[in-house]
Amino acid sequence: MIKKSEHKGAGHRQRLRQRFLESGLDGFHDYEVIELLLTLGTPRKDCKDAAKEALKKFKTLQGVLEASRHELCEIGGIGPKNSLGLKLIKAVSDRFLEKKLIDKNPVNNSKELFDFLYHSIRDKSREYFKIIFLDSKNRVISTETHSKGTLTASSVYPREVIYSALRHKAAALIFAHNHPSGDPKPSAEDFAITRQLVFAGKVMGITVHEHIIIGDNRYFSFADHGHIAQMGKEFNAHMK
Question: What are phi and psi of 214, to 5 degrees?
Answer without folding.
Answer: -95, 130
